[in-house]
Amino acid sequence: MFHSSSSTMESTTELTRLLECRICLEGLQNCHICFYCSQPFCRACIDNWFKKDRKCPGCRTLLASQNCLVKVGTFDQIQEQLSRMLSDETRNRCSQHPKDRLSLFCEPCEECICASCLLSEQHRDHKDLAVLLEDIYDQYEEKLQFVLGRIETRKIIIKGSLNDVEDNLKSLTKQLEDETKILDANMSSIEKVRNQAEALLKAKKDATTLKAIMKILQSAESTLSEEAQTSAEINERLLKFFLINPATLEFQLDRADDDVDLVSELLTVDGFRWAVKLSSENALYLSLHEGIPGFHHPVRTYCRRGRCCH
Q: What sequence ranges are listed for the domain RING-type (predicted)?
């Protein structure tokens, strides 16, 4: 196997050399050959050569004109095919053992390896846990398909959220405009009371002024109380725009014995599987049992104490 791979690489290398420009020694671009010796050149390279020398770089024959050069489109096609061959030849080679292809999969290390890697210090203890690459490939492809499904689900959810945000933004803008008008009116009211109060503080201290002060105190108390209540109501209304709708788990628990803990069936939400447990002491537990395949999720329990309603 190693000899075959080596021979293939050598043949490919020789073919690559034959498809090199004789001037720049790189892959041919817009290949033209000499009419006399058939040596290939890039058109740009031979044009630059003719600016200083009219002789062919290969056979040194004097070329009367550029008509002595023949375009060969086949070279470009061969060059393209060769590039693909080289890419395929080196694509799945082991970086540690370049002659070997990556044909095995070490499950403990979760790594693609070659036959030589299996004998290395890193993987020698995993010989019995190494499988053929094609045998494990479908499992990872299935995991990837599952992740793609989750991505599509999340895209739908995000799109819905964006629509909700846009709708809420329009509603919030209208709400803010209305609330701004109310707050502006409140500001005008308390400014009016403030101006009256400041004027009375500068007024002559007599019975008339005292009556006015008593009247403004009563008015100010009412105005400030109403303003405080209105502001609180506005804050409460605006707060609703920032509340996030919770995820919902629907389940049913039928209790036959008060001394027995109840556990619901596993509930799936966005790729995660949960179970709800109600203890005999009316403590409610939420346990995460499964997440994204291929990722380790230890079972975690979340407790929410509350009252059980019958």
A: 21-60
- Strand 130-132 to 267-269 pairing: unpaired
| Cα–Cα separations (whole angstroms), residue 264 to 278, 286, 291 | 9, 10, 18
- Name every residue whose Cβ is closer than 8 Å to that of residue 36 and which is 6 or more positions away in sequence: 56, 59, 61, 68
pLDDT of residue 45: 92
- Alpha carbon 304 to its chain centroid, in Å, reads 32
Chain centre to alpha carbon of residue 244: 22
Buried b (16+ CB within 10 A) or exposed e, 244-262: eeeeeeeeeeeeeeeeeeb
Instruction: Determine the pLDDT at residue 11.
Output: 54
> Mind listing the pLDDT tens digit for each residue in 211-242?
888 888 888 888 888 888 888 888 777 776 66
From the CB of residue 122, how many other CB atoms can be counted at a distance below 10 Å?
13
Predicted local confidence at residue 92, as pLDDT? 79
DSSP H or E run through 135: helix 133-202
Confidence of residue 298 (pLDDT cuts 50, 70, 90): very low
Q: Pairing mode, if any, of strands 130-132 and 104-106?
A: antiparallel
Helix (H) or strand (E) holding 239: helix 207-239
The answer to whether the CB of 130 falls within 8 A of the CB of 107 is yes
